[in-house]
């Protein structure tokens, strides 16, 4: 009987360990017997069977337009590309051949004007949605335009959800307020998939990222997944392994892929209720930073320590010699997607070969998994600080820097090799 009770207690504790992280950061649905696909560090095909073939690239010091800080890309059914530039406060439209068609929008608070136009979505009714995260803070303004950039209407949205954090002065849970909507994707003709960055109401000591399903008709939202930021947990310690943004993507049948830790090769596949369907894992080693990257991390740590000292906070900042297995570049990386064959593409820091120590030009690698989670192939990507990846109809669009220091827009065809 004692042996039985001991085994039962062990099983209970093991289950709690699996589904409830020690620091309580991630809101993960409790589910037993989650199917896990464990892959080796070698793909099925040692030679790539897919090629990223460059179609065109635009950018630099073009007098007609200059990209400043692109935060969103989307493409309509005709192949026209829409770019939101958060620092230029405008939207740039290009043809499928990369020709600049039009620029619209400007800084301001009136109809069709922007303060921080962060997210862009091509809707199913020949309209585009631009989300402004600042103009009606803490609400987000949804601006609707025609494909040609003519303003139609706007409304303000406040996304709130109850947290599991107690107010110190009152015996009640605090509200999470969506201070900014950073991504928006068309999920269905009537719903958007939103990536929301929360602040906790009344106090600003904690924040979180969340994935929400938003109804365009009644303006109601349903939270699917939430992850608390960890940088506020210990105010006297920090390190460069802290993940500030939650990588995620979704496919049209409703599956959502979430990476909770950039330093652990685990991809959780959820349904639209946030329930885990299965987990994809892969054996891995954390890539080593180059000397240039390590010195850069040390400089950033020193700058952060000095900044905290100005606020009266004394912190320790640990810099690791390894970098994350998954590629990360703030909230605009968007470096994970499903293609039309339902293969999941995930950008990693492997093999992480620095081409030039003076430039942060690195050969990244896309790991590609089939619809069952099997690790198929690696596809290399040579770019400088790539971000804003968008897959559409067999083409991959993304933004990266070139040697001139300007952001460039790239269009690549995903070509299947015989």
Contiguous low-pLDDT stretches (5 residues minimum) are 1-31
According to DSSP, the number of beta strands is 28
Instruction: Give the DSSP E fraction (strand runs of 2 or more residues).
Output: over 45%
Largest sheet: 7 strands, antiparallel
Question: What can you see in these coordinates?
Answer:
The protein is mainly beta. The chain has helices at 2-19, 291-310, and strands at 26-27, 35-39, 50-59, 70-75, 81-85, 90-94, 100-104, 117-122, 127-136, 139-146, 151-157, 160-166, 173-188, 191-200, 207-215, 221-228, 237-239, 248-250, 256-258, 266-270, 276-282, 316-318, 336-338, 344-356, 361-369, 375-392, 395-401, 407-416. The chain has a 7-stranded antiparallel sheet, with no helix packed on it. The protein has a 6-stranded antiparallel sheet with strand order 1-16-15-14-13-12, with no helix packed on it. Strand 15 (207-215) and strand 16 (221-228) form a beta hairpin.
Summarize this, please?
This protein is mainly β.
Architecture blueprint of SSEs:
Blueprint: H1 2-19, E1 26-27, E2 35-39, E3 50-59, E4 70-75, E5 81-85, E6 90-94, E7 100-104, E8 117-122, E9 127-136, E10 139-146, E11 151-157, E12 160-166, E13 173-188, E14 191-200, E15 207-215, E16 221-228, E17 237-239, E18 248-250, E19 256-258, E20 266-270, E21 276-282, H2 291-310, E22 316-318, E23 336-338, E24 344-356, E25 361-369, E26 375-392, E27 395-401, E28 407-416
Parallel strand pairs: 2-21, 17-22
Antiparallel strand pairs: 1-16, 3-28, 4-5, 5-6, 6-7, 8-9, 9-10, 10-11, 12-13, 13-14, 14-15, 15-16, 18-19, 19-20, 20-21, 23-24, 24-25, 25-26, 26-27, 27-28
């Amino acid at each position: 009987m004692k042996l039985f009770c001991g085994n039962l207690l062990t099983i209970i504790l093991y289950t709690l360990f699996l589904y409830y992280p020690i620091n309580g950061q991630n809101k993960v649905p409790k589910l037993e017997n989650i199917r896990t696909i464990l892959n080796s560090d070698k793909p099925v095909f040692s030679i790539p069977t897919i090629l990223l073939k460059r179609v065109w690239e635009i950018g630099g010091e073009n007098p007609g337009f200059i990209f400043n800080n692109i935060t969103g890309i989307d493409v309509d059914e005709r192949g026209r590309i829409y770019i939101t530039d958060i620092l230029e406060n405008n939207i740039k439209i290009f043809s499928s051949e990369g020709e600049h068609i039009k620029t619209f929008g400007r800084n301001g608070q009136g109809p069709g004007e922007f303060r921080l136009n962060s997210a862009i979505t091509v809707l199913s009714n020949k309209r585009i949605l631009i989300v402004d995260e600042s103009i009606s803070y803490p609400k987000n303004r949804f601006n609707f335009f025609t494909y040609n950039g003519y303003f139609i209407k706007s409304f303000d949205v406040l996304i709130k959800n109850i947290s599991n954090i107690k107010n110190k002065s009152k015996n009640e849970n605090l509200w999470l307020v969506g201070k900014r909507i950073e991504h928006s994707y068309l999920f269905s003709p009537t719903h958007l998939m939103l990536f929301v960055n929360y602040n906790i109401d009344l106090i600003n000591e904690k924040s979180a990222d969340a994935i929400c399903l938003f109804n365009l008709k009644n303006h109601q939202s349903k939270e699917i997944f939430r992850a608390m930021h960890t940088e506020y947990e210990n105010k006297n310690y920090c390190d460069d392994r802290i993940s500030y943004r939650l990588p995620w993507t979704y496919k049209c049948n409703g599956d959502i892929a979430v990476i909770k830790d950039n330093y652990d090769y685990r991809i959780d596949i959820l349904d639209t209720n946030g329930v885990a369907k299965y987990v994809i894992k892969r054996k891995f080693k954390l890539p080593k930073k180059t000397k240039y990257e390590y010195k850069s991390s040390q400089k950033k740590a020193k700058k952060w320590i000095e900044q905290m000292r100005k606020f009266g906070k004394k912190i320790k900042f640990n810099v690791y010699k390894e970098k994350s297995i998954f590629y990360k570049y703030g909230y605009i990386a968007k470096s994970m997607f499903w293609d039309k064959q339902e293969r999941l593409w995930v950008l990693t820091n492997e093999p992480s070969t620095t081409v030039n120590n003076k430039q942060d030009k690195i050969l990244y690698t896309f790991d590609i998994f089939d619809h069952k989670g099997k690790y198929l192939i690696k596809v290399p990507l040579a770019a400088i600080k790539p971000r804003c990846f968008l897959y559409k109809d067999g083409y991959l669009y993304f933004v990266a820097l070139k040697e001139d220091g300007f952001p460039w827009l790239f269009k690549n065809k995903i070509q299947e090799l015989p």
